Amino acid sequence: MRVSIVGAGYVGLVTAACLADQGHDVVCADIDRTKIDRITGGASPIYEPGLDELMARNVGKRLRATTDVGGAVAESDLTLVAVGTPSVNGTIDLGAVVSATRAIGSALAGKSDYHLVAVKSTVVPGTTDGVVLPLLEEESGKRAGVEFGVGVNPEFLTEGQAVSDFMGADRLVLGGIDGRTHTALEELYGAFAPSVPRLLTDTRTAEMIKYASNALLATMISFANEVGNLCTAVGDVDVVDVMRGVHLSHYLSPAGPDGVRVKAPITAYLEAGCGFGGSCFPKDVRALIAEGDRREQPMRVLRAVMETNDRQPDELVRLVESAVGDLQRKRVTVLGLAFKPDTDDVRESPAIPIVQRLAARGAQITIHDPVVADLPGELQQPEVSLSVDLEAALRDADVVVLVTRWAQYLEVPSLLAAVNPAVPIVDGRRLLEKESVANYFGIGVG
Ligand code: NAD
To answer: Would you call 280 a catalytic residue per the annotation?
Structure first.
């Protein structure tokens, strides 16, 4: 199929590269010229394992990039909208969706053949029906369900494993206004094995499935964090041991066909840490809370989920203070700036409020991250610097604080043993074995 993807960010570019690799003819359109130039030059503007290889195989062949949104739509049969839907004051900002939709709609005005527009961005239930569809009709002068179709195709990829998540999709949620829309979306995903469940549904249900999925995972994280904080308060009980016991439930670790118990991947969300971040969970949970308020259906559980999450940086900073006392002029090395491992995305990373709180208490902070190359604007202050030299960052520290679960931090105990053996380490992700360092403080262990 000839596919245009509007918005070439984490979701748009990964989707474009994967669909091109599956044989579609794909063009990404974005208003950010720098991004488009990089993609056209064959370089990925984001760090995502496997993406460079896909781009090397497809850029200039089945994958192109342009800043001309209208042109991209005109030369394709199907358009996916993958622009950002950030949260502004707790509510979803549809500015990019609206401007992308207008551009798509006016390109549809000049098209003679049927076209499908599907929203891949995460939008609150009712947005596609209530905002996108009428705008497309207004701009194109055509009728939805007659000259063009409208669908919702939420994306479930996780940054850091986006390519493998996309290629190994667990489900395809295909929301549409009619059967023709469903048929076109099924054709788009024709390369996926028949065993991958296709859920054909309406647009609102598809929109709600995405929010409910993210909200569930966020809830599990805050639940584990709250249990962990209570473990700390109780004393002599470690949340890691507690959760190990919880995970052994047959609901979470069912027996496989050979009788061997298999831990379900969802248990990864039932572990205590220093909170969730990223471009999705916080904004999506907030958007659902705001939608509940708007519809006079308060989302009480989700409010508590956010409240617990917002407090988690304080828990970690409290632990740092219990390790080294007053933070005035203390040299703190923070390990990890990305919101999770294997990505360079720092949007709403828990590292940001943690570092801000440490700096506010007078600490000098050195941040190490294996891939993040620049400090985000919120952390550009004299007390905060970024280092690429892990060993030096460990050597010069009065306390080390582990914030992101990068696999390479598993080497920290042996590096510390060589350069700074007595330094306290505060493990905000419970990545390290307690016994592996001399002076260990972990979140959720009293
Ligand atoms: P992103 O910020 O990385 O990318 C969005 C892109 O859209 C940017 O490159 C921006 O320049 C472009 N853009 C903005 N307005 C435009 C316009 N009018 N025309 C063309 N391009 C425009 O965002 P993302 O992380 O890829 O997320 C996109 C959507 O997918 C969001 O709704 C997000 O919630 C959802 N989502 C994200 C993830 C994830 O892990 N990042 C996973 C699932 C779903």
So the answer is: yes
In a domain, 80, yes or no: yes
**Mutation test residue for ligand 1: of 35, 37, 83, the one with most atoms within 8 Å of CB:** 83
CA atoms of 42 and 235, how far apart (whole Å): 54
Q: Domain residues for 330?
A: 215-442
Strands 87-88 and 91-92: antiparallel
Q: Per DSSP, what are the bridge partners of residue 426? A: 401, 441
Residue 81 Cβ inside 6 Å of ligand 1? The answer reads no
Q: Ligand 1 center to residue 103 CA distance, Å?
A: 16
What are the tokens at 141? Answer: 């002068």
Please state the pTM of the whole predicted model: 0.94
Q: What is the tens place of the pLDDT at every residue in 92-118?
A: 999 999 999 999 999 999 999 999 999
Ligand 1 atom 19, closest CA: 100
191 with 273, same domain? no
Instruction: Please report the atom of ligand 1 found closest to the CA of residue 12.
Output: 26
401 within domain boundaries = yes
Q: What distance in Å separates the CA atoms of residue 94 and residue 207, rounded to the nearest whole number?
A: 14
Ligand 1 center to 120 CA (angstroms): 9
- The verdict on 424 and 345 lying in the same domain is yes
Q: Are residues 141 and 241 in the same domain?
A: no
Q: Which of 11, 93, 173 best tests ligand 1's pocket when mutated (most atoms within 8 Å of CB)?
A: 11
Helix (H) or strand (E) holding 414: helix 412-419
Q: In degrees to the nearest 10, what's the CA dihedral of 291, 294, 299, 300? A: 140
Same domain, 185 and 230: no
The rounded Å distance from CA 121 to ligand 1 centre is 7
Distance 78 CA to ligand 1 centre (A): 18
**Euclidean distance between CA atoms 31 and 419, whole angstroms:** 48
Confidence bin at 166 (pLDDT 50/70/90): very high
Q: What number does the ligand 1 atom closest to the CA of 32 have? A: 11
What is the per-residue pLDDT across 21-34, written as a single tens digit (0 to 9) for each?
A: 999 999 999 999 99
Q: What is the 3-state secondary structure (H, E, C) of 80-113?
A: EECCCCCEECCEECCHHHHHHHHHHHHHHHCCCC
